[in-house]
Amino acid sequence: MKKETMYIGEIIKRLRFSKQFNQEELAFRSGLGRTIISYIETNVQAPSLSTTFALAKGFGIKASELIKEIEDNPELIVLKEKESKNRFTK
């Protein structure tokens, strides 16, 4: 049985929904801009390590917990830098 692939943004979005945060609330709590939250959730951009730490802070969890959540999804696809920049260009 083939499992669905999941992008890192979907995990971030799922966590945000579980905390009942909108993007603005997560941005405020993490010290990030709302636009970067949107880019991550829509898989336009993968989060850097420092952004991952900021997101964990925004969720009120340890970075290791967020990374474990990501690791627990072996079908996870993380966009490479080139893919994320050129994703919507022809």
TrEMBL record:
Keyword S-adenosyl-L-methionine: no
Domain called HTH cro/C1-type: residue spans: 12-66
SUPFAM superfamilies: lambda repressor-like DNA-binding domains (SSF47413)
Keyword DNA-binding: yes
Domain of life: Bacteria
Keyword field: DNA-binding
InterPro entries: Cro/C1-type_HTH (IPR001387), Lambda_DNA-bd_dom_sf (IPR010982), TransReg_Diox_bact_type (IPR050807)
Official protein name in the record: Helix-turn-helix domain-containing protein
Source species of the chain: Neobacillus pocheonensis
